[in-house]
């Protein structure tokens, strides 16, 4: 490496870390502020004493345990539902090429552009007719049939060689056991990728849960945090930081541990 | 397998998905459209057919034009910048440099946060006088600013925050794109004595064009779907300076209880998104032709 190249490389390296600094510092600052009193946080008193008061305060001002439980219930209703229903639909498209399958698939794809986020008004009307307003199932229901999941699984199922299926049939496997023993195991990477993307999306989703929930018993973390942070409630900055940290902690910790899988899943889901 | 069994089994397997899709995508789309053609029902008068009245009042509603233009500015302000930063990030992380894992984590982490949390964190940076930005400006002897309270700085402030939140996600797509480029191309370019700058503009950037198109369209769609931060930061204010279409729909339907008008707005948004998605179809199809 020439002298000039070496300088270039180190300049680039410094640039890379400065960029990373800009991206990570806002978070580190929130983290730091959550452990300091509001007045210390505002004066950037770096060596001021650590405290857990903000967490205690946030915890007592709003039922974050309940919100976490609600988010957990919401995600554990949506994901298995999505996987089950999309598996069946994708299997129908790939193996049964039924009459009208192309039209049906086109109708599925419509949901890729008309996402439930946009149909908030009419979906609210529908759910109130079903008297599912302010329930976790009502919050999850519009997302259970996911065009995106059907699409990804259909792609994955299509790449499975026909010979495997024929062999399973010769062994005496029925329709459902071929799905369960051949298709599903071979599409595992797709299942993992979609699951991580779906969980992160619904853990963080806000607008629809806000509209459909109106009690502590159903509000997920994002909505609880949103109400807690609304300008009119005027909470102190450090307490807000603590509440924000508590809300993002589960997903963020999962991400930090399984960072590679998360990034790869987003990659896979993106390129289809 | 007989044709009839195939058909029956196929349709049976597809039915659960079909019912849910019809109930929460197709049916509401159609009812939204009809709703927009009728006036609101109230206690004293039943709803009546009003044709395109709701659309006429939409096009003469200055707030509608304001939120639409805001949305466009948001798209113009966030998309090119976040794509540029995302490409730089992907190029950095794609190379074997010290601390690669850490850098990738740093760039991607904001993507994992809910927009509400992002807004909470940035709220403090933008706070007048006591906020981080004003504090830093003060050190250098500049005047502070009420970033979110000033109609001329509120949208740029939100744009900066959105770039921070989204660049990492786009980086991942570019990373995927970069990994499909054969390393032999880089070696060949090196042998030819081509500079890195040249290699990027002549080889990498053109080969990443499909990725750019994909990111461009998805970022555009996102800029219309993501309004969560407004609930915490500005409520669309001051004077609708940061209001966006979807937030305006929410306000119209759930605060002003004007379902008819909210439906007309929704149809407008749907038409806009559908056109974009069709453009994506068209362009992505072309790409597969010349490959």
Supply database-style keywords:
heterodimer, A: 272 residues, mainly alpha, MetI-like fold, B: 291 residues
Summarize the helices and strands and which ones pair or pack.
The complex is a heterodimer of chains A (272) and B (291).
Chain A: H1 3-34, H2 38-42, H3 53-61, H4 64-95, H5 101-113, H6 120-129, H7 136-144, H8 147-158, H9 162-170, H10 175-186, H11 188-204, H12 207-212, H13 221-229, H14 237-257, H15 259-271
Helix pairs in contact in A: 1-14, 3-14, 4-7, 4-8, 4-11, 4-13, 5-8, 9-10, 11-15, 13-14, 14-15
Chain B: H1 3-36, H2 53-59, H3 62-94, H4 100-112, H5 115-126, H6 132-139, H7 154-179, H8 183-191, H9 196-207, H10 209-225, H11 228-233, H12 245-255, H13 259-290
In short:
The complex is a heterodimer of chains A (272) and B (291). Chain A has 272 residues and is mainly α.
Textual characterization of the structure:
- The complex is a heterodimer of chains A (272) and B (291).
- The model of chain A has no long low-confidence stretch (mean pLDDT 86).
- Chain A is mostly helical.
- Chain A is globular and about 75 Å long.
- Chain A has helices at residues 3-34, 38-42, 53-61, 64-95, 101-113, 120-129, 136-144, 147-158, 162-170, 175-186, 188-204, 207-212, 221-229, 237-257, 259-271.
- Helix content of chain A is 77%, strand content 0%.
- Chain A has 15 helices and no strands.
- Chain A starts with a helix and ends with a helix.
- Chain A has one domain (56-271): MetI-like fold.
- In chain B, helix 2 (53-59) crosses helix 13 (259-290), helix 3 packs antiparallel against helix 4 (100-112) and helix 3 (62-94) packs across helix 10.
- Chain B has a single domain, classed as MetI-like (MetI-like fold), CATH 1.10.3720.10.
- Helix content of chain B is 76%, strand content 0%.
- Chain B is flat, with a radius of gyration of 24 Å.
- The model of chain B has no long low-confidence stretch (mean pLDDT 86).
- The longest helix of chain B is centred in the N-terminal third of the chain and has 34 residues, at 3-36.
- Chain B is mostly helical.
- At the A-B interface, helix 1, helix 4, helix 5, helix 6 and helix 7 of A face helix 1, helix 3, helix 4, helix 5 and helix 7 of B.
